[in-house]
Amino acid sequence: MIETKEHFSARLKGLGRKHEAMAGGYTTHLRSDGLIVVKPRGARRKRTSPLKAVILAALGFCAFKAYAVQSMGDLVYTDRVAKLEAGTPVERAGAWAMQIDPLTAAMTRAITSLTAS
């Protein structure tokens, strides 16, 4: 069998594609005839969706607020938020963001019940 430069280039290109596919991980299988076959794993998503990132950031912020409410107490926390409401526009925006919302209140109750046990 005579191989030409085109055959060699095609084989080399195929090996390059196989190497790229295997770089993401691979699995091995033993066939019934005893041959070990290596196959690339399925493509994985490397990026998370922007919506998921925003939701996780919002949940993290609410968890931070819940911890602050739980550690300071409701009265001290609301007093500090009230002081922010009387400040500059940036402080008022911070006070709006730091208000106790229903999710923060639920997280505070959960943290309190976990620490009480």
Structure in a nutshell:
With 117 residues, this protein is mainly α. It has helices spanning 5-23, 50-72, 74-85, 89-97, 102-116; strands spanning 26-30, 36-40. It has a two-stranded antiparallel ribbon.
Q: What's the Cα radius of gyration? A: 29 Å
Number of helices: 5
Strand content: 5-15%
What is the averaged pLDDT score?
Answer: 88
Approximate shape: elongated
Proportion of residues in helical segments: 55-70%
What is the SS-derived class? Answer: mainly alpha
Largest sheet, strands/sense/barrel: 2 strands, antiparallel
What is the straight-line distance between the termini? 78 Å
Strand order of the largest sheet: 1-2
Report the uncertain regions: none
Strand tally is 2
Give the topology string: H per helix, E per strand: HEEHHHH
SSE map:
Elements: H1 5-23, E1 26-30, E2 36-40, H2 50-72, H3 74-85, H4 89-97, H5 102-116
Antiparallel strand pairs: 1-2
Helix pairs in contact: 2-3, 2-5, 3-4
What does this entry look like structurally?
67% of the residues lie in helices and 9% in strands. A two-stranded antiparallel ribbon has the order 1-2. The chain has 117 residues and is mainly alpha-helical. Strand 1 (26-30) and strand 2 (36-40) form a beta hairpin. The protein has helices at 5-23, 50-72, 74-85, 89-97, 102-116; strands at 26-30, 36-40. The protein is elongated. It starts with a helix and ends with a helix.
